[in-house]
Every structure is written in structure tokens, then in C-alpha cells.
Q: What sequence folds into this?
């Protein structure tokens, strides 16, 4: 899969991708001693997508994010999120 110029399958094999939130990807993160790379998402962009695409209010999007996205644990290569606003 190629997202924002990154070949995710090549660079971050096994990293967890969030369906439908590709536009919120900021990049790929590596960490010393970690078993693999992880995908870095913008929290603000995720909330914006949920509002625009799914018709949620900002409050609904934050609640959905907290419970369904931030609360997700899918393994060591779970996505990580950058808070910018």
C-alpha cells in the first residue's frame, strides 16, 4: 500500500492501519528496540474526517476517537497519534 509516498508494506510491515483514515497519516515512526515501525496519525485530522465524512459533531467525534481509535490495542505496532490542537 502506498500512502503519501510511503510504501507501507515495505517500510512498516505489520503496522496497523486505520481503515478510511489514510488522509490523517503524518508518517512512519521507528523506535530503538521496537519490533517494527508504527504509523503516526494526526488526532486533529482524524476528528475532522469523522465530522466531515460521518456527519458527527466535534463532541461525538472526540468520544468515538477516545473509545474506538485511541482505545484500540492491536499489538506492538499499534498506531500512535500526534496532538497538534
A:
Amino acid at each position: 500500500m502506498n500512502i503519501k509516498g510511503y510504501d507501507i508494506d515495505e517500510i512498516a510491515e505489520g503496522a496497523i492501519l486505520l481503515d478510511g483514515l489514510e488522509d490523517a497519516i503524518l508518517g512512519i515512526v521507528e523506535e530503538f528496540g521496537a519490533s517494527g515501525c508504527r504509523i503516526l496519525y494526526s488526532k486533529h485530522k482524524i476528528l475532522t474526517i469523522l465530522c466531515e465524512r460521518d456527519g458527527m459533531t466535534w463532541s461525538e467525534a472526540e468520544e468515538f476517537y477516545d473509545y474506538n481509535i485511541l482505545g484500540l490495542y492491536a499489538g506492538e505496532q499499534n498506531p500512535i497519534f500526534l496532538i497538534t490542537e
